[in-house]
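[SOLVED] Need 3D model of a two-part complex

Original post:
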Amino acid sequence: MDAIKFVHEQMQSERNFPEFFPGDNIVVNYKIIEGDKERIQAFRGDVIQIKGQGATRTFTVRKMSNGVGVERIFPFAAPTIVDIQVLKRGKVRRARLFYLRDLVGKKARIKEKKVMSGK
Amino acid sequence: MNGIIGKKLGMTSVYDSAGRNVACTVIEAGPCVVTQVKTDETDGYFAIQMGFGEAKAKNTPKPMLGHFEKAKTGPKREVVEFRDFNIVSKSLGDLVKVDEVFKEGDKVSAIGTSKGKGFQGVVKRHGFGGVGGATHGQHNRMRAPGSIGASSFPSKVFKGMRMAGRDGGDRVKIRNLQVVKIFPEQNLILVKGAIPGHNGSFVILEKK
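Solution:
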């Protein structure tokens, strides 16, 4: 496994994304290529899972789009990701929030975590 | 055939220059020791025999120990002959490294022993479709092979009829795998796609 770790370190460029956890509400800005044009699209939603390690680590973002649940899995190492912003810290009690898939409307909300001020 | 002996370490994925995620296999390839050079004069053809992987002397046959002694090297686990090896000229006892044989972007073949599956039925072993459904009178024949031949003529089952049996554990060659990356100092090579065998098993990489 050490050799694979070595390959990861060699092939992966250093990315500085803000730290986020399952339950957080984030915006992922990523590049999409249409023909020969390139533009940046935003995907805003709740992080429902972070899995894997090293270069194959991924996170899953879920959002409601016109009443339909949409999930997108992003690899942390994806060069298409331009940046990530954390909008809200969520208060959740588990690491995988798949129960959200069965909930709609007000029940599918995540309580915001009250962050203590620095002082 | 130019090539090298290696050990499959595992799989991972990397991003290529176009930003695509490429699944690839990490192989520890070489350095191999040249254990014999066959020439037209002595053997009637030209080939290089290479050894790879440390072995214990007590597990190595005595004739082989003498053979390795000639190349001034210790006993090796795998010994493979590469016919018409012509990229670099090597003599007995020389080391062959990955970056001497391959370069990034090359198409190579990987030869290994596939994972053993044990005794398997025809659906897994030969890709039969099975009966199709559980209804229409079926109750225990869903993965059965069906008919294996006609009746009084020919009164036998033809040789080679595909049936259940031991599956996997065969020598398998996967062709046209692209070399994604080579790390010469670590003797590592990244090859696009999957190759046969377990992690830790020996593979032969070769190039036409």
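Edit: The CA atoms of residues 63 and 70 of chain A lie 5 Å apart.
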